[in-house]
Design brief:
Elements: H1 4-10, H2 15-26, H3 28-44, H4 47-73, H5 78-98, H6 104-116, H7 121-132, H8 136-156
Helix pairs in contact: 2-7, 3-4, 4-5, 4-6, 5-6
């Protein structure tokens, strides 16, 4: 059963589209991390290398999101930042998959490039909610809905 407040939110102009787009943009985070781990285990045969490179992925996503979110905070176009980082991160993942190496340092370097450029969809979208939903009650419900659907995204991803 969907709570009434969620239904009202999703009928608000642009909200359903913004939420759907943001969730689609976030699918790459859990899927990318898992794909990198599986690739490293396959290439190196080492779960220690996979653990290290997983840490590189997580740290890279965290640091990269801070940097790219800061660009948006400083007046850069959110659309340009999101599209630019999406292209860079996707290119990094393609290179990671295409370069046939089992070297842990090389895999870590390529993973770092892909992770540092993951699009900062969550913070950009959270900054959008006050614009689309000016009243505090609607924003509170939206943050709750977004967190719930995001957790489902990580489970499915």
């Amino acid at each position: 059963m969907i709570p009434r407040s969620y239904g009202l939110l999703l009928r608000t102009p642009f909200v359903a589209r913004a939420l759907g787009t943001s969730l689609l943009a976030r699918v790459g985070m859990p899927m990318g991390g898992l794909a990198v781990v599986l690739l490293v285990v396959d290439r190196t045969g080492s779960y220690a290398s996979a653990g290290f490179i997983s840490a590189v992925w997580v740290a890279g996503v965290g640091l990269g999101s801070l940097a790219s979110s800061r660009l948006v905070d400083r007046g850069r176009s959110p659309r340009a930042v999101l599209l630019g980082t999406a292209v860079l991160s996707s290119t990094g993942l393609v290179v990671l998959a295409a370069v046939p190496t089992g070297s842990t340092p090389a895999l870590a370097g390529m993973t770092a490039v892909a992770a540092l450029t993951v699009p900062p969809a969550p913070p950009v979208v959270r900054a959008l909610w006050p614009v689309l939903l000016p009243d505090a009650e609607s924003r509170t419900a939206m943050y709750s809905l977004e967190a719930t659907v995001q957790e489902l995204n990580f489970i499915v991803g």
